[in-house]
Amino acid sequence: MTVTRSRTVEALLTALSHDLPGDCLSTGPEATAPYAADRSGSRPLGEPWAVVHAANPEHVRTTLRHAHALRVPVVPRGAGTGLSGGANAGTGTVVLDLSRMNRILDLDPHDQIAVVEPGVVTAELDRAAGEFGLRYAPDPASAAISTVGGNIATNAGGLRCAKYGVTRDAVLGLDVVLADGTPMRTGRRTVKGVTGYDLTALLTGSEGTLGVITAATLRLRPVPETTATVAAYFDTFAEGAEAVSALTAARLEPSMAELLDGPVLAAVDDAQGTDLRSRGGALLLLQCDGRAAGTEAELGAQVLRGRATSVETTDDPAEADRLLTARRLALPALERLGRVLIEDIAVPRSQLAAAVREITAIAQRHDVRIFTLAHAADGNLHPILVLDPDTPVIPDAAWQAAGDIFTAALRLGGTLTGEHGVGALKRRWLVDELGPEQYALQQRIKAAFDPHHILNPGKAL
Amino acid sequence: MTVTRSRTVEALLTALSHDLPGDCLSTGPEATAPYAADRSGSRPLGEPWAVVHAANPEHVRTTLRHAHALRVPVVPRGAGTGLSGGANAGTGTVVLDLSRMNRILDLDPHDQIAVVEPGVVTAELDRAAGEFGLRYAPDPASAAISTVGGNIATNAGGLRCAKYGVTRDAVLGLDVVLADGTPMRTGRRTVKGVTGYDLTALLTGSEGTLGVITAATLRLRPVPETTATVAAYFDTFAEGAEAVSALTAARLEPSMAELLDGPVLAAVDDAQGTDLRSRGGALLLLQCDGRAAGTEAELGAQVLRGRATSVETTDDPAEADRLLTARRLALPALERLGRVLIEDIAVPRSQLAAAVREITAIAQRHDVRIFTLAHAADGNLHPILVLDPDTPVIPDAAWQAAGDIFTAALRLGGTLTGEHGVGALKRRWLVDELGPEQYALQQRIKAAFDPHHILNPGKAL
User: Shortest CA distance to A115 belongs to which of A43, A57, A164?
Assistant: First the structure.
């Protein structure tokens, strides 16, 4: 078995070293080990056989054509910042690294559209759009390090989703290479369009299992004239969650509503020398944008005042940045404390406080440390399990807690992945959410794209 | 051939009359003829063999289970208001009429979600949501007569799309029955969620070829506090189109920008006794909404003033309704003049004026009458061919003009269907837009859902 696979892989490496420039192919464990895992904290067995550093779509086509013919699994990879093991690549796989394809091919301020290669770092696109008073509205917390291709592969959410939608809502069209090396263009450069099945939406969030993205046509939107920020502290996280429900009931549509629990605030304080935890057991950061941002933020503050222990409002961007720093530094602050396992459930917005109470009970039941932050305006919670930093494998109690969190999310009418994808980590629970009929149908769709099942096997579908 | 088909259909009718309540099944040409065509102006050959008036999902399952086993084509149908022949059903087909499934099953103001049956009239849902200060944001011009199920089947656009998205952006989840009668639930009740392939998006716009919708979970949004309306007249339609591009360049995001050409204004005048045509060769109706609506409308008016012959602004809803009436009555006004063939191209927003010039040239070249209106903010144009009312078949010149319009749209970077779907009318051009590889892949996806190809054959895919 090992011999057969090895011969197949040798045939592939021979073909690739013949057909690709020398600097596009890395082999040997030292070179490939850094490409074995993403940022999820999980690791596959072994290292990939090889890494192809594609510099253009032709390299992608060549790699897939040979891999398809020889039935060798290929794992597409952007910056490797994923949090679900979607880019994990162990023994027997070839990694297709797209990070060198990092050009902005077109940025059209008249059509408010950008065409980019998959390896463009998300914040770079946003910065380039900013020169025309535009922005790429999805704002993943990882924007400074993640790539557009990875954002599309996971249909990444972010801080501004409740008002502006997730990555899918900004993707108008895709250039992809199918599993057998065939290039295909989906979608359009127009705002609207409904010709045929929406393969652009189907590919978005497919985690590299249906095709490899070589370019994306993205919608840009005007940068709002004004942004106003509210910081509100609460005694408990559940009270903060209930306050966000009250904002929804008041029919406010904030562009951001980030909620952090007390343990997260304490971790940020430890890492940054701030003094947030002493001010409350939870912090809600609310932003409103547009020409009425100040009015809307004041309305939000009125709703919060009866519920929070303190409420501050600002329309000074520097002051807002200072407030947002706590949120942006939350994950690195937790990573200092131990090995993190980041969950990513979404629940109906009215169930946010109920989900918080469930998570607290689950942490006590399994005696694990869970820190929680939430994109509260769209009901997306990140319970983050922090494990012993020296633990070599994820302990059973952590898996059980994760399973209980997913079960609770489904019971509350929610979903087990809000924005990070299924990847390798959550695959065991996938059929629980989809049900057997939909799971079987999704497998048939996978086969329609990738009959030999070479694209990122063992992830998502 | 006819005998074989007839025996198969007899077997199906026997099974359906045994398994369905008597009032759910209509047969005979008098009863079925009204279900042969939609509002597109096209007609199939003959009438459907039978019409099933489904009252619940079980009736849908029963119908599909038998039709699948006997390989009889089934054409799902809502209100029959489609404009592309997507619900056309000729000899040999059975129509699955969903208009009796018209209940709003749930309307949750806390989660801002509605769960509805497919036969709910879109305006009814919007009215029900309005009791909670919410609305169903997609606003097809046909909202008063079309159903939610039909809107989803075509991924209908509407007047507020540029700011609030199309139907797809409001659909969170679907209950569908697959071709073989298997029920399946896709999507979620949460704002975010990315578990598995996005079948909700794939089914939206699939024109009844992948499954039959029995319920939809829809996102509602708050009704804006204020709406402000601007009416601007231009000498020519192209000048109006250029003015809309100038609004985009000024980074305004209107909730509506409807543009009507001079011949449409004259037709409305004839039908309604108004006096619009004398005021200009084109009318732009612009709306801004939200707490800064007045400010934004004034900014829009400033951009327009140098370009338009007259500009009027109002934040009085009654006055705005009066202005919008011209737009809403445009199609009925044209239907008085002859048999209409409604095209539905979308182009990049910067190409709107170029598309208008192409359409004018095409009308002259083929000597056909073309009236044009546009959802200008998202580049969606409706060139409407008005033919002799007594013409029994669509003349070659009209088909050639339609073909030239599609070719022009593709050349300008656009798409041949903006919001009405492909249906029966535009199927001959589908492969031109998709290309052979994507067309083949879409057929494999179709086969994954509907292996016997019974669902709405001859439409879309």
Answer: A57
Instruction: Scan residues 6-45 of A and list those with Cβ closer than 8 Å to B.
Output: none
- Show residues of chain B in contact with A192, CB under 8 Å: 157, 161, 166, 346, 375, 378-380, 415, 418-419
Q: Where in chain B is the domain with CATH 3.30.70.3450?
A: 224-326
In angstroms, the CA A70 to CA A284 distance is 53
In CATH terms, A104-222 corresponds, of 3.90.1170.30, 3.30.465.10, 2.60.120.10, 3.30.980.10, to: 3.30.465.10
Helix (H) or strand (E) holding B12: helix B2-19
Rounded CA-CA distance A327/A324 in Å is: 5
Give the tokens for residue A175.
Answer: 């250039």
Strand A380-387 relative to strand A339-342, pairing: antiparallel
For chain B, say whether A455 makes contact (Cβ under 8 Å): no
Distance from the B80 Cα atom to the nearest Cα atom in chain A, whole angstroms: 19
A288 burial level (CB within 10 Å; 0-12, 13-18, 19+): buried
| Residues carrying CATH 3.30.465.10, chain A | 104-222
Compute chain A's Rg from CA coordinates. 22
Nearest CA in chain A to B299: A291
pLDDT truncated to tens, each residue of chain A (461 aa)? 344 557 898 999 999 999 999 999 999 999 999 999 999 888 899 999 999 999 999 999 999 999 999 999 999 999 999 999 999 999 999 999 999 999 999 999 999 999 999 999 999 999 999 999 999 999 898 999 999 999 999 999 988 888 899 999 999 999 999 999 999 999 988 888 878 999 999 999 999 999 999 999 999 999 999 999 999 999 999 999 999 999 998 999 999 999 999 999 999 999 999 999 999 999 999 999 999 999 999 999 999 999 999 999 988 889 898 888 888 889 999 999 999 999 999 999 889 999 999 999 999 999 999 999 999 999 999 999 999 988 888 899 999 999 999 999 999 999 988 888 888 888 888 888 899 999 999 999 999 999 999 999 988 77
Q: For domain A7-97, is the CATH number 3.30.43.10?
A: yes
Q: Record the tokens describing residue B61, joined without a space.
A: 């399952």
Smallest Cα–Cα separation from B184: which of B203, B167, B169, B207? B203
* B192:A249 CB<8 A: no
- How many beta-carbon pairs below 8 A join chains A and B? 273
In B, residues 312-331, which contact A (CB 8 Å cutoff)?
none
ipTM comes to 0.94
- Facing residues of B74 across strands? B94, B455
Give me the torsion for CA of A273, A279, A281, A287, rounded to 10°.
Answer: -90
SS3 readout for B262-323: HHHHHHHHHHHCCCCHHHCCEEEEEEEECCCHHHHHHHHHHHHHCCCCEEEEECCHHHHHHH
- Interchain CB distance below 8 Å, A438 and B196: yes
Q: How large is the C-alpha radius of gyration of chain B?
A: 22
Other C-beta atoms closer than 10 Å to the C-beta of A21 total 10
Binary contact (A196, B442; C-beta < 8 A): yes
CATH number given to B224-326: 3.30.70.3450
- d(CA A348, nearest CA chain B) in Å: 5
- Tokens describing residue B330: 């445009």
User: Could you tell me where in chain A the CATH 3.30.43.10 domains are found?
Assistant: 7-97
